[in-house]
Design goal:
The complex is a heterodimer.
Chain A lengths: L12 H29 L11 H4 L2 H14 L3 H14 L9 H13 L3 H9 L3 H4 L2 H15 L2 H16 L6 H29 L3 E2 H8 L3 H10 L3 E3 L4 E3 L16 H16 L1
Antiparallel strand pairs in A: 1-3, 2-3
Helix pairs in contact in A: 1-3, 3-4, 3-5, 3-10, 4-5, 5-6, 5-8, 5-10, 6-8, 8-9, 9-10
Chain B lengths: L7 H10 L3 H9 L6 H9 L8 H4 L6 H17 L9 H10 L2 H4 L3 H17 L6 H11 L6 E2 L1 H12 L5 H9 L4 E2 L13 H17 L3 H13 L10 H18 L11 H8 L2 H8 L14 H13 L1 H6 L3 H22 L2 E3 H8 L4 H13 L5 E3 L4 E4 L10 H8 L13 H24 L1 H12 L1 H9 L10 H17 L1
Parallel strand pairs in B: 1-2
Antiparallel strand pairs in B: 3-5, 4-5
Helix pairs in contact in B: 3-5, 5-8, 6-9, 8-9, 8-10, 9-10, 10-12, 12-13, 12-14, 13-14, 13-26, 14-15, 14-19, 16-17, 17-19, 23-26, 24-25
The chains are: A mainly alpha, B mainly alpha.
């Protein structure tokens, strides 16, 4: 590691911005949580800000690099924790940069299949943030997910990806994170759907399967074949094979002594 | 040494130099010759050098002293505002995160005072949600176990709901640590003690939060606890308990298909009052309820009746803040119609099911059935021709404990019992019995129980009789504890 090539100096605008944000983030990460609270309340206790006020007042942008990092490592639970803490401690929750935190938070909840809390997060947003195209897209995705409307889920997810791909969308880092998370969501969602369908269907038509997975036949059939689903080309019918889901029941193999103790105890109680 | 407890300098010196925490606690607590209010003022003042005493003391090692000073200052600042310097919020935050629980337990009422004043302060600043992590930290670190109820707990839940900021952390706390102990202490400020209402409010709000996050089984347990909390004899049940009963019934319909029998120690007054409200008709019209009158007639009329009942009393439900739950109930009703169909049919077409449920669109019916299979409410398979086949529960169940509840639902008397594998049940029963035995031992040891047993049974021998036969707890006040412990055990079983 010590002998690796040195990092090239930041050249493009984006890199310069990132660099500035990174160094400030590390210096101010500790102060960010307490300062937004104290700057609005302290008049007696002098706490001089250490850097230009713009960054002090935007904890959302400060925490975003960390969120992006956690998202690339797929550490959703930590991402959720950090995002929720930022949400609580931020003093001004009306500003649009809140989207930097809210959108990954909701997507993380969806990936974890924690639907009710995702809906609660959407409900607690102020009106003008809710009206933003990003949130209204995310909202309709969540709604489709909770209704179990499979076609809509895939179309809404695609709409979201298309939205951030537009040139008018100014935040490339956020777009990157959104793309990655939507992909994760779709893949974990397809996995869950797969398990469910294996359990629920004895046979289904190909068109139905295409609807459930949001994939065309040529992409779907190899995956299905890999899992042992039989396909009848003449009638275009797939036969799912029930997969063994990991049993939530762990046989009490190693607890024989505990069992013995328990039985002996209950017998002695009976004797009394 | 001549301890000078009449000035802040003297107090600070004592705090920093004292080796004996108990003595220090005693000094701080007794206001001596000056009155209690004067002592509060002294605690809230700055030192003679003009320095802030909080900058001199260490937040963790001098927790006891800092506790007194912080709570006094915030309190006086909020009430009197007479030149008292408000402690900086950063210090309050830091204190709540790192305070030493052992020291704090020497004067718990100050922590409660601190919790109440910081919540009030946050609210007046318009930043209520800032108080949530602080309250969480105080409430979870002050008592010895996480399942002990303090006066701070209900403030935490109330703040969470008011700030509309429900986090997975709070939900985890509610689910994994149901209350089985109370944090009682004697102190000179009676309004900072744990009161009966605190318990009610905590469990009621806990149920509300859990309903919002979709954890219906846990919510049901919390509402039941609020509902069955014993009051002193001859006093009527609290209004909050009636609200808990209403919500309990609604959630039982949504999650289990119909009202379940209440515990035997519920106050009959509550059920009587509920019968006279529109809720009773609504619940009776619900498909899973035993009273559903449409069992014989055209089934989809039942759904229409439900919608009619709701639209008739819409304003009433809105005024009681239950409209959301009621509408959810109507939306979930078709599922329980389908569940009842499984008792009669082995196979059924999707179109037929649609007819029963009152939904024309086959895609919607398909989605509905799929959702029920996903949540394991029914066990069924669908064929490509749109025929649904209902199955019995498999012999070797890798059925988790959660699923047992929904599958069993309301067990009809005697009819086909679902086959669940024996090892699972055995393990669950074992865990339950050990918990129950522990609680019985605890109850039997308590002084009050022995005193009562001697009084009622007559003589020491009967007290010993009760001790040696744990589980036979009759006609004492601890009927409540026993039932409560049974419920707690059920909750543990459900979520361990």
């Amino acid at each position: 590691m010590a002998n690796g090539p040195p990092t090239p100096p930041p050249t493009t605008d984006v890199e310069i911005q990132d660099e500035a944000r990174m160094s400030d983030a590390s210096a101010l990460a500790v102060e960010a949580s307490s300062d937004p609270a104290s700057e609005s309340t302290s008049n007696a206790a002098p706490q001089p800000p250490l850097s230009p006020p713009i960054q002090l007042q935007d904890p959302y942008q400060l925490i975003f690099p960390r969120i992006a990092e956690l998202s690339s490592q797929k550490r959703w639970i930590e991402l959720i924790d950090i995002a929720e803490m930022t949400e609580i401690n931020a003093s001004n929750d009306q500003q649009l940069s809140r989207l930097f935190v809210i959108v990954p938070l909701i997507l993380a909840y969806l990936i974890q299949n924690d639907l009710p809390i995702a809906k609660l997060v959407l409900e607690r947003l102020p009106i003008d943030i809710r009206m933003s195209p990003l949130i209204s897209n995310l909202g309709s995705l969540t709604k489709a997910y909770s209704a179990g409307a499979y076609e809509q889920i895939y179309s809404k997810a695609n709409a979201l990806v298309n939205l951030v791909a537009q040139p008018e969308f100014q935040q490339p880092e956020l777009a990157q994170v959104i793309n990655a998370m939507v992909e994760c969501f779709l893949s974990s969602f397809r996995d869950r759907t797969f398990l469910l369908l294996s359990r629920a269907y004895t046979s289904m038509t190909l068109s139905l399967a295409e609807m459930y997975f949001g994939l065309g036949a040529d992409e779907l059939l190899p995956i299905a074949a890999r899992h042992g689903w039989a396909y009848d080309t003449s009638t275009k019918v797939l036969k799912p094979v029930p997969t063994n889901e990991t049993a939530s029941f762990f046989p009490p193999a190693a607890s024989s002594l505990a069992n013995f103790n328990f039985i002996a105890q209950s017998v002695s109680l009976l004797e009394m | 040494m001549a301890p000078d407890s009449q000035s802040i300098d003297g107090l600070v010196q004592q705090i920093t130099t004292s080796n004996n925490l108990e003595a220090l606690a005693h000094t701080l607590r007794t206001s001596g010759t000056s009155g209690r209010d004067v002592r509060e003022f002294i605690l809230a003042s700055s030192m003679s050098s003009g320095q802030d005493p909080l900058s001199v003391l260490d937040l963790r090692n001098n927790t006891l002293g800092v506790m007194y000073i912080l709570s006094a200052r915030l309190n006086i600042y909020l009430n009197a505002q007479s030149g008292v310097q408000r402690p900086p919020w950063a210090i309050v935050t830091q204190f709540c995160e790192i305070f030493d629980p052992e020291q704090a337990r020497l004067a718990p009422e100050r922590i409660v005072m601190l919790a109440k004043s910081l919540t009030r302060y946050a609210q007046e600043q318009g930043k209520l949600k800032l108080a949530i992590p602080l309250l969480y930290s105080l409430a979870t670190r002050l008592p010895i176990t996480l399942s002990t109820l303090t006066p701070i707990h209900h403030i935490l839940l109330l703040t969470t709901l008011q700030a509309r900021h429900i986090t997975p952390e709070i939900t985890r706390l509610l689910i994994e640590h149901p209350i089985d102990d109370l944090y009682m202490y004697s102190n000179i400020y009676p309004d900072h003690n744990l009161s009966y209402i605190d318990n009610l409010v905590y469990h009621y709000l806990g149920g509300v939060i859990l309903t919002k996050t979709g954890n219906y089984t846990a919510a049901i347990d919390y509402f039941e606890t609020a509902l069955t909390a014993p009051s002193t004899t001859n006093s009527p049940p609290a209004g909050l308990q009636l609200e808990a009963l209403k919500k309990l019934r609604l959630v039982q319909c949504i999650a289990m298909g119909g009202p379940q029998p209440l515990p035997k120690y519920t106050s009959p007054v509550l059920t009587r009052i509920l019968k006279s409200t529109p809720y009773q008709n609504l619940i009776n019209a619900f498909p899973g309820s035993l009273h559903a009158k449409d069992r014989g007639e055209g089934p989809s009329s039942g759904n229409n009746r439900l919608k009619q009942l709701v639209s008739k009393d819409r304003d009433f439900y809105a005024s009681e803040c239950n409209l959301g739950l009621v509408e959810l109930l109507v939306a979930e009703a078709p599922k329980w119609v389908i569940k009842r169909l499984t008792e009669t049919y082995v196979t059924l077409g999707l179109a037929e099911i649609g007819r029963y449920v009152g939904v024309d669109d086959e895609q919607q019916v398909r989605a509905l059935v799929l959702k029920m299979i996903e949540s394991k409410t029914i066990i069924a398979t669908i064929s490509d021709l749109g025929i649904v086949t209902f199955h019995d529960a498999p012999d070797t169940a890798d059925v988790s404990v959660e699923d047992i509840r929904t599958l069993l639902g309301d067990l009809p008397s005697g009819t086909n019992l679902t086959k669940i594998s024996v090892p699972i049940l055995l393990e669950a029963v074992q865990v339950q019995s050990t918990h129950l035995a522990e609680l019985d031992m605890e109850v039997g040891r308590s002084k009050e129980f022995i005193a009562k047993a001697i009084k009622t049974g007559g003589g020491i021998s009967s007290a010993l009789f009760f001790l040696r036969h744990p589980g036979i707890v009759q006609h004492t006040r601890f009927r409540y504890v026993y039932g409560w412990s049974r419920k707690w055990v059920r909750t543990r079983w459900g979520f361990s």
